[in-house]
Amino acid sequence: MATGRIKKALSGFYYVESKEGETYQCKGRGVFRKRNITPLVGDMVTFDISGQHEGYIVEIHPRENELVRPPIANITQAIIVCSAMKPAFNTTLLDRFLVLVESKDIQPVIFLTKMDIAGQEEANLVSYQRDYENIGYQVEMLSVENIETLSVVESYFKDNITVIAGQSGVGKSSLLNAIDPSLLLKTGEISDSLGRGKHTTRHVELISLYGGLVADTPGFSSLDFQDISLEELADCFPEIRERRQGCKFRGCMHHKEPKCAVKAAVEEGEIPSYRYDHYLRFFEEIQTRKPRY
Questions:
Q1: Reported pTM
Q2: Residue 19 counted as an annotated binding residue
Q3: Where is GTP bound in this sequence (predicted)?
Q4: Could you give the CA distance from residue 250 to residue 261 in angstroms, rounded to a whole number?
């Protein structure tokens, strides 16, 4: 028996890297299907070596967390990539990603790419950067065209299992290609007619990069909050979470309740109004969602 981490899943095979650095092509035991358990990229597993660099996964170790889209487990950090232009920066979409990441107890980092074509929008983007940094997020503003600016991001990967997420076309694969050209990740062209990119990444794979592991994940342009309850939503906004003790009523939802510390902070400009507007929008979305069977 040996232990290792699944670094790639493809066509029913799981490629497990052992603690000794060897990679084994493994199948999952039938017991997983019977128990409706699917091994995920990022899983720590115990496997039985059955041949030269081949084996069978016999146990999946407990997970710290997992995502459905992309299917990956034990993530420590999510780099959320947004672009200044093409597609335009969108705070609603960014906050959707942040809420999902926060709900999984994953550390988020925001990369804002394509600053070299921001033009007149640069001042607004710097203002947004200040807002998100005041909340406590790390924000890096990057120009993929200028590779020297990318040296600042290398330290984020060390000792982390990183998932890179963001709307299609924002430059996720391009960013990784610029950091390490040997990755040769396929990049997609922007569809001018749709204003968004085409899906180019076909499977999830953990790639060794700067002392950590990183997954270049399929781009997706919508997120639902199917697994997040109304009570959990406020905890996914750090600036709301840290003020809830100041509300008059325990269990305040920061919606229609009187003497709410969160609404007071919005009125006083301590919480950006667009962030609170997004909270209310997501609140209503969760409240009115149809049950999934």
A1: 0.83
A2: no
A3: 113-116, 166-174
A4: 12
